[in-house]
Amino acid sequence: MATILKPSATSEQQMASDENAMMNQIQATHSPDGRELDVRFFLHLIEDIIRCTIPNPAVVNSKSEDKTQPSLRDIPEPLAFLISKISCEMSCKSLTGADAHATTMGILSMLSFFKWDAKAVLFAAAFAINYGEFWLVAQFYAKNQLAMEIAFLRQMPDIKGNFRAFESQFNALNKLIQSTLVVIKCIVEFMELPSRYISEVTPVLSIAMNQYIPTATYWTIRSMVACISQITRLLGMTRNLISTPETWNWELSSLADMVRNIHDYLQRQLGLCYRHIDEKKHEEYFPMLVRLFETSHLDNMRILQALLYSRDDDMPLLVACSSGKRVHVDLLRRRNILLLISDLNLSEDELQIMNSIYKDSQGRPEILYEVLWLPILDGWNEEHIRTFDRMRQMMPWYTVHDPRLMEPAVTKYIKEVWHFGKKMILVVLDPQGNVVCRNARHMIWIWGNSAYPFTSTKEDALWKEETWKLELLVDAIHPKILDWIAQKEVICLYGGEDIEWIRKFTTTAKGVARTAGIGLNIVYVGKSYSKDKMRRINATIAEEALSYSLPDLTSFWYFWARLESMVYSKMQHGKTVENDLIMHEAMTILSFDNSDGGWALFSSGSAEMTKTKGDMILKSLTEFGTWEENAQVNGFVPTLNNQLHKLDTPQYSTLLTLPSIGKRLILPGIDGVVPEMVICVECGRPIEK
């Protein structure tokens, strides 16, 4: 059994020394003098010639199916002479059996004044002449007298008639040629890297230019020299001498493997170069965005194109969400735009409410705006894309075609300037692309399309017209509440998740209403979380006919989201619980949602309201006999309010954490920023974070 010996340290050093010596030889032939060459023109021509020489009997004597041909033009005479000279040099060397390395080095010396990409392309052009002429004769061998006689003089065998005998050789040739062309295109790509963002002194490109590309150029030339040598061996072969030259195929296959490995190295280094270029572009792009948003424009096109910048420049940037059809950004020209910015955790509740508001605007010609969804993630994978596509189909507006192609600087701008964190924001652009509101979510949740055109000025004007009343609290979440308000009926909103308390409260309230001779409409508004619990409680309330309830789980969410938005909106306008009644009342009800027990609010008409927590409201209703006469004279709701005061129940409950009473507040950050100080609605003291 043969023993496999590992190379010794001495042999490894010798190999490294040989590689360095060869690299020095290659570099010694390189003396570019600034000559320019349209490498893309020649590369296209070379590829077209190779494509027409497909070694397959089915296509011999047929035209190439590819109708796209390079636009031919005059080649400068010195350049044409050089290509012909190299072509002749290859033919002569292959006939004499010259050493492949010596031939390659000689050709590199002939091309010394050109850059690396031009060297590879010019040699490939010379190779294409020899290879193309060979196949031109081979394809017309049986049909053309001239081709047959030339083949006879050159002792070329009948390739078509004996193709199966030559098939393995031509397959090996074709694989090597294709692998070599791929490497040449990669070299060309390196030379076309934008000097604005990367130069030859940049480490990632310097390594490629000084090591990988010279080596790749050498081996592409040497591989094509080997191909011509194999073609020369075919010339002069007679039918009787046709055999299976395994050694030929082995040589070509070994070169093909080496060329593929070189290509892998080049591709990895090219990837690093592109990463460096992207980083430089990102560094430029962010300040460009800042300047762009500080500049006045005639329309919103420059702003939208900057936000939607994609490396896929040839296709429309947008897609209509519901149909998946790609559309041009021009559709949004001079429109009011709501940029819906979120991650992929946009809830079904948010999406359902936003869909409803958007569809309502479509039937109102006085309200003209479009919604554009910008999904923001730090890194995308295939699962994210599937989620994106699934969510997109639930939307009636527009989004980006492929969020992976968005410029990272845009994500940075959205996070750092517009303070996007995790919660959805709605940035409003006017028809000129100006940001007129950095987050209109709160005003849209509160007023819907009545807040159009969704500017901060409009939001401020709407607040000046508002007072704390039941219409503001409930809007049209329940179909009957607004009718009850108009009829000045007594309405009770209540919440909590203790079903026993709910049973006791609703039974007691109904009994008091019968005794007082009033119509009482009780509506369950649930809690802002625990959807599964809300589903079970809602089913029990309906089954036992305990009270009315909001229509669905999304309505529960929307009731509490609107209250939260009232608080946020007021904070954005500099209000506090000390100087703003609406903010004070909204925070009080939010505090009930964060408490462990139930709560209730009673109202008569629009403005008469009183509220408290579950134990106090039950105590007051249980003692109705003590204040029944006053209720007959002064009205049910005002008298209940006085009774709550008599029980020494705080008029307002706190939403914040106070060490002495152990209350708590769950207050998400406002657009990514948590307020430094919030005042307790009950005692007026600052709350610790």
Automatic annotation (TrEMBL):
It comes from the Eukaryota. Transmembrane segments: none annotated. Residues 458-689 form the Sieve element occlusion C-terminal domain. InterPro entries: SEO_C, SEO_N, SEOA. One of its GO terms (biological process) is phloem development. Residues 17-297 form the Sieve element occlusion N-terminal domain. This is Protein SIEVE ELEMENT OCCLUSION B-like. It comes from Escallonia herrerae.
